[in-house]
């Protein structure tokens, strides 16, 4: 049991180290890897709402809002109010020209750092499931 637990903690440490390395790649642009992922998702759509981002990426709405505000302050995205909708509070997001340039640079950087990696999606899904289970107990 102790060996399995130590093995698990070692794998968690490796995961944490990998996460830190991903954040290092985006640090130069004053954004976190999570913000990069939001920007990446926004760049795939013409326009998207913060609520849709929250739902699709399984991130809380307040967390999405904080990350979006930082991206907006850095001028990486634009906020557009929809005048077609009666509810003027609804905002749609689109990537800005500056955001597109940053995404191109970061995409190139990621391609150089992690070329042709076959991401073990099943293992990642299992790990996330296990971490969720642990955090509920």
UniProtKB/TrEMBL annotation:
<dbReference type="Pfam" id="PF22381">
    <property type="entry name" value="Staph_reg_Sar_Rot"/>
</dbReference>
<keyword id="KW-0805">Transcription regulation</keyword>
<dbReference type="InterPro" id="IPR000835">
    <property type="entry name" value="HTH_MarR-typ"/>
</dbReference>
<dbReference type="InterPro" id="IPR036388">
    <property type="entry name" value="WH-like_DNA-bd_sf"/>
</dbReference>
<feature type="domain" description="HTH marR-type">
    <location>
        <begin position="1"/>
        <end position="136"/>
    </location>
</feature>
<dbReference type="InterPro" id="IPR036390">
    <property type="entry name" value="WH_DNA-bd_sf"/>
</dbReference>
<dbReference type="GO" id="GO:0005737">
    <property type="term" value="C:cytoplasm"/>
</dbReference>
<keyword id="KW-0238">DNA-binding</keyword>
<dbReference type="InterPro" id="IPR055166">
    <property type="entry name" value="Transc_reg_Sar_Rot_HTH"/>
</dbReference>
<dbReference type="GO" id="GO:0003700">
    <property type="term" value="F:DNA-binding transcription factor activity"/>
</dbReference>
<protein>
    <recommendedName>
        <fullName>HTH-type transcriptional regulator SarZ</fullName>
    </recommendedName>
</protein>
<keyword id="KW-0804">Transcription</keyword>
<dbReference type="GO" id="GO:0003677">
    <property type="term" value="F:DNA binding"/>
</dbReference>
<comment type="similarity">
    <text>Belongs to the SarZ family.</text>
</comment>
């Amino acid at each position: 049991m102790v060996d399995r637990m130590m093995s698990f903690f070692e794998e968690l440490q490796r995961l944490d180290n990998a996460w830190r390395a991903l954040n290092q790649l985006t640090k130069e642009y004053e954004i976190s890897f999570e913000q990069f992922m939001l920007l990446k998702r926004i760049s795939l759509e013409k326009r998207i709402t913060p609520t849709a981002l929250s739902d699709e990426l399984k991130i809380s709405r307040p967390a999405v809002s904080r990350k979006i505000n930082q991206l907006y302050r850095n001028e990486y995205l634009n906020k557009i109010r929809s005048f077609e909708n009666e509810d003027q509070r609804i905002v749609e997001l689109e990537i800005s020209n500056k955001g597109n340039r940053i995404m191109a640079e970061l995409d190139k950087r990621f391609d150089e750092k992690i070329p042709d990696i076959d991401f073990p999606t099943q293992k990642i899904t299992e790990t996330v499931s296990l971490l969720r289970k642990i955090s509920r107990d």
